Amino acid sequence: ELVEARRCLEIEMAGLAAERGTVDDLLVIARHLAEMRAAGDHAASFLEADLSFHLAVGTAAHNRILLNALHLIRNLMRQWIGRTLRVEGVTDQAVEQHQEIYDAISERNPAKARSAMEHHLNEMAKQLITAKLTMATDEEFLEQEGSTEPGALQR
Fold first, then answer.
1. Cβ atoms of 134 and 86 closer than 8 Å
2. CA triplet 148, 135, 47: central angle to 5 degrees?
3. Residue of 1, 3, 6 lying closest to 70 (CA atoms)
4. Which pLDDT belongs to residue 134?
5. Weakest mean pLDDT among 14-18, 41-45, 55-59, 133-137
6. What would the pLDDT profile of 75-84 be if each residue is shown by its tens digit?
7. What pLDDT does residue 41 have?
8. How many CB atoms sit inside 10 A of residue 152's CB?
9. How many Å apart are CA 67 and CA 70, to the nearest integer?
10. H helices of the chain, where?
11. pTM score, two decimals?
12. Of the candidates 93, 103, 26, which has an alpha carbon nearest to the alpha carbon of residue 59?
C-alpha cells in the first residue's frame, strides 16, 4: 500500500516541481542531494538527507494538499528507506536516481521528472523486497543457531 501511495503522490509531485519549482526550491533539493553524497555509508545521515530530498520535491510542487499527504506517510517512508539502506550498493544507486530526478526538475521537464521518480520508486520497491528477504533469512539463521534475541545480528 505504501508503494502505491508513494507512486500516486511522488510521481505527480515531481512533475509539478518541474513546472512550479522556484530557484530557491531547486537549491534546497540540491542541498539534500549533496547531503546524501556526503553521508556516504553513514546510514542515519543518508536516511535523513534522502527523506528531506523527497519532502523538498514535494514542497517544490507547490500543492499544499499533496504535501500534507506526503507528510502523513513520512514515518512509513523513513522505515522504507531505513530498510533498503541495509542492501549493499543501494546508497550509490539511490544517489544516482536522485540526481536524475533533480536534473529533470531543474531542466523544467515534467515528463522526465515523473519518469525519473517512477523509476526510482520502482527500483527502491525492489530493494525493499530484497531487504525484507534478507531479514527473514537472517532470522531463520538465528533460529537454527538457537539465538532468538532481538537485535542479535546487530551485535
1. yes
2. 120
3. 6
4. 76
5. 133-137
6. 999 999 999 9
7. 85
8. 13
9. 5
10. 2-6, 12-20, 23-39, 43-60, 64-72, 74-84, 90-106, 110-145
11. 0.86
12. 26
Around Cβ 141, how many Cβ atoms within 10 Å?
Answer: 12
Report whether pLDDT(29) > 60: yes
DSSP state of 29: H
- Name which of 64, 77, 61 is nearest 6 in CA terms: 77
Given this model, what pLDDT does residue 146 score?
54
Distances (CA, A) of 106 to 58, 89, 111, 123, 132: 14, 26, 12, 22, 34
C-alpha cell at 100: 536524475
CA pair distance 141, 148, nearest whole angstrom: 10
Q: Grid coordinates standing for 92?
A: 550509490
Nearest-angstrom CA–CA distance, 81 and 106: 24
Q: Record the cell numbers describing residue 151, joined without a space.
A: 537485535
Contact between 119 and 104 under an 8 Å Cβ cutoff? The reply is no
